[in-house]
Specification:
This protein has 219 residues and is of the alpha/beta class. It contains four helices and seven strands. The strands form two sheets. A five-stranded mixed sheet has the order 1-5-4-2-3, with helices on both faces. It has a two-stranded antiparallel sheet with strand order 6-7. Strand 2, helix 2 and strand 3 form a beta-alpha-beta unit.
Length: 219
């Protein structure tokens, strides 16, 4: 048995549009999944957020709980929870860089295999944490969502493999610096990201090597 993909969806911010929010983008992707399947929100009792950047640099609570609230607001009435006392959802964050999404699938798969969940949703979205960062944020603001369900067949996610390549740690780095941001007079903590031109090539090499190791283990 394994976890099968039931539905996937994406959300993106177009030039000049509003809504540059990781929470809102993730909620839009999640809500679209539910709309496409005509599935009411209460069927999802596990919601895992694997996004990295927190709106307004929020520390607590888990961003997943805020995404869940927004999903409910975006749904048509017949798909809403419609129960103020609903407590069946377990929502939490799983931030682990680029591996967070894979970790989320692993955890969701464990819930499904143990019959603790019928369906699980994983969302991942990133956008500039604040409006002042949007002009220097080097990534496209976007989000994705996936709904997994338990498979009774010999199909779906069953085995996982992740590897670390420490020899490439100098190719990509982020550093917290105390400096004066663009168009501001006061100093603030800023994350500065540097990426080597060879980073993408090395990533592809690492992916190819990891896939080869995984294939040999399953042979």
């Amino acid at each position: 048995m394994g976890a099968e993909i039931h539905m996937v969806s994406t959300a993106i911010v177009f030039n000049g549009s509003k809504g540059r929010s990781a929470i809102l983008l993730s909620a839009k992707a999640g809500a679209q999944c539910l709309k496409d399947t005509e599935m009411p929100l209460h069927r999802i009792n596990k919601l895992i957020n694997t996004g990295l950047y927190r709106d307004k640099n929020i520390g607590e609570p888990a961003i997943a709980t805020l995404i869940h609230t927004q999903i409910d607001k975006l749904l048509p009435d017949h798909l809403k929870i419609n129960n103020p006392g609903f407590t069946g959802l377990f929502a939490f964050d799983m931030p682990n860089g680029g591996v967070g999404f894979l970790n989320g699938i692993q955890i969701a798969n464990a819930f499904l295999e143990n019959n603790e969940s019928e369906y699980a949703m994983i969302v991942s979205g990133d956008a500039p944490p604040t409006r002042n960062d949007q002009w220097t944020f080097p990534y496209t603001s976007a989000a994705s969502a996936i709904i997994l369900k338990k498979s009774d067949k010999q199909s779906g996610f069953k085995h996982f493999l992740s590897r670390s390549y420490p020899e490439g740690h100098d190719l990509y780095s982020g550093m917290l610096k105390w400096k004066k941001p663009f168009s501001r007079r006061s100093y603030r903590n800023r994350i500065e990201i540097s990426m080597s031109p060879d980073y993408s090539t090395e990533i592809l090499k690492a992916c190819n090597e990891t896939l080869g190791i995984f294939s040999r283990k399953q042979a």
